[in-house]
Design brief:
This protein is α+β, with helices and mostly antiparallel strands. It has one domain (6-101): 2-Layer Sandwich (Alpha-Beta Plaits). It has helices spanning 24-39, 68-75, 78-87; strands spanning 11-17, 44-50, 59-65, 96-101. The longest helix has 16 residues, at 24-39.
């Protein structure tokens, strides 16, 4: 059996997020709102906002989309584009986004 085309393979993401310590509640509310909307997208398999046990001042969003195309579509959704604009003021620095393929 051949390997699936890159556009048809699942896409995993690990997003490291550093919220401003003086705006934690606002940042979490914004991320949870974006997460709630994303979970309704047909291309989203899962999305979890997590907190590393060894770094309580940072968060990690773990995501899986059915394909790169599904993630590209996700990135164009108004609640995502507007949400990311709002997050700019709620974070200490831009989020670090890692895209991963399944082995």
């Amino acid at each position: 059996m051949s390997e699936p085309d890159e556009a048809d393979r699942p896409l995993f993401l690990v997003v490291s997020i550093k919220p401003r310590l003086d705006r934690l509640d606002e940042a979490e509310a914004q991320l949870q709102s974006m997460r709630h909307n994303t979970l309704n997208e047909p291309g989203c398999v899962f999305m979890h906002l997590t907190q590393p046990q060894d770094d309580p001042d940072s968060w990690v969003m773990l995501e899986m989309f059915r394909s790169r195309a599904a993630w590209d579509d996700h990135m164009l959704q108004p609640y995502n584009t507007e949400g990311n604009r709002i997050l700019e003021d709620l974070l200490r620095e831009p989020s670090d986004l890692r895209l991963l393929d399944e082995k």
